[in-house]
Amino acid sequence: MKVTEYFDKAKGETLVSFEVLPPLKGGSMKTIFDMLDPLMEFKPPFIDVTYHREEYVYNRQDTGFYEKVAIRKRPGTVGICAAIMHRYGVDAVPHLICGGFTREETENALIDLNFLNIKNVLALRGDARRFEDKFVPEKDGHIYALDLVGQVSDMNKGKYLDKGIENGAHTDFCIGIAGYPEKHFESPNFELDLEYTKEKINAGASYIVTQMFFDNKKYFEYVDKCKAAGINVPIVPGLKPITRKYQLNSIPRKFFINFPEELVKEVQKVKKSEFVKEIGIEWSIQQCKELKQRGVPCLHFYTMGDWETSKKIIKAVM
Ligand code: FAD
Questions:
Q1: pTM of the predicted model, to two decimals?
Q2: Is 195 part of the annotated catalytic residue set?
Q3: What spacing in Å lies between the alpha carbon of 105 and ligand 1's midpoint?
Q4: Which residues lie with the beta carbon below 6 Å from any ligand 1 atom?
Q5: Does residue 25 carry a pLDDT above 90?
Q6: Which pLDDT score is estimated for 274?
Q7: Closest residue CA from atom 42 of ligand 1
Q8: What SS3 class is residue 190?
Q9: Chain mean position to CA 181
Q10: Can you give the pLDDT at residue 166?
């Protein structure tokens, strides 16, 4: 079923969903199942699986020179989606990115997903590769998520790249996109970022999943601004509790978000790591309680390999 259909069916009740990362190459599907098994009691209607393009690494050679090699450290998104659907009978939402894909490869990937009866995709641009200072698309690949949304929408209308295809099968993907309550880091300002978000909706996207945030005010303001701009799709809050002290710096560096002063002060006070986790869980519980009370469609947890933390939070909220 489509993600938006689950929201319609829930009739205002808040659902719970999860995002998982493929294991590092060489890992096994068991790590994903071990993570998801304990979370299935919350009956997530869908589970997102991230996509990771290749990264450059520099290997030191015997000569002392370094060899630049491109490797994909976390392959397997589509296989994991299929395995999740098979084991749990829930919908899997693969993340589809522009980076590393030509349009042709995107088309072929969408055909695979359609044949697997996958009904949803989260369409994203992806980030720049490590050691690149800006996002570089493939030759003939998409530059912005907007173009990717357009390609998926075209296939939903039976339009393929090969103009010779007449009466091509219509796919029926529900398209999600990313949204940034605290602005995408490359955008010159919030308003322009929102304009591009609206373009993605106009191009066929039907829901938004937000970047993580730790201050609900930012999310509610974002929803209001989206509405004022004519964006009327469900906006799913993305949630990640802080569990380690170093995340006070690493999370803003990686995800370009701010921590509220009160949370920073509380975390800075404590000496032992386990207490940081307790603070992070309690903060997230309060966030989730308010979001649920205000009727958000879904609480979407970025599990990042830690099911226990998500479980504690959901148990306290749902
Ligand atoms: P876009 O919508 O293309 O926006 C990128 C930048 O370009 C923004 O600054 C925007 O304002 C600007 N822009 C957009 N359209 C235009 C236009 N037409 N003209 C000019 N400027 C424009 N990354 C992964 O690699 N794999 C994942 O699985 C993954 N999952 C994610 C899930 C969520 C919920 C979120 C929030 C992010 C995820 N990301 C993932 C990270 C994401 O790929 C990055 O944040 C990326 O930098 C931007 O992606 P986007 O889809 O928002 O890009």
A1: 0.97
A2: no
A3: 19
A4: 50-51, 95, 97, 124-127, 144-146, 178, 184, 186-187, 193, 196, 209, 211, 238
A5: yes
A6: 81
A7: 126
A8: helix
A9: 14
A10: 87
Q: Tokens representing 268?
A: 């800075």
* Residues 100-148: tens digit of each pLDDT: 999 999 999 999 999 999 999 999 999 998 888 899 999 999 999 999 9
Q: How many angstroms separate the CA atoms of 235 and 227, rounded?
A: 10
Q: Which two tokens stand for residue 94?
A: 């693969």
In the sheet where 238-239 sits, what is the strand order? 235-236, 207-210, 174-179, 120-124, 91-97, 46-49, 15-20, 298-302, 238-239
Q: Give the pLDDT mean for 27-36.
A: 96
Per-residue pLDDT reduced to its tens digit, 130-142: 888 899 999 999 9
The atom of ligand 1 lying closest to the CA of 179 is 36
Task: Kindly give, in sequence order, each residue whose CB lies less than 8 Å from that of residue 133, ignoring residues fewer than 6 positions away.
Answer: none
CA distance 302 to 119: 21
Query: What confidence tens digit (pLDDT) does each residue in 249-268 have?
Result: 999 999 999 999 999 999 99
- Please give the number of the atom of ligand 1 that sits closest to the Cα of 124: 51
**Ligand 1 centroid distance, CA of 276 (Å):** 30
The CATH fold assigned to 3-7+15-317 is: TIM Barrel (3.20.20)
**Domain range annotation of the chain:** 3-7+15-317
Whole-number Å distance between alpha carbons of 274 and 268:
13
Tokens of 237: 């809050």
User: pLDDT, tens digit, for every residue of 43-69?
Assistant: 999 999 999 998 888 889 999 999 988
Q: What is the DSSP letter of 259?
A: -
For 268-272, the CB contacts below 8 A with 24+ separation are 270/245
- Give the pLDDT score at 163: 87
**What pLDDT does 271 receive?**
86
Mutate-to-test residue for ligand 1 from 20, 184, 186, 189, highest number of ligand atoms within 8 A of CB: 184
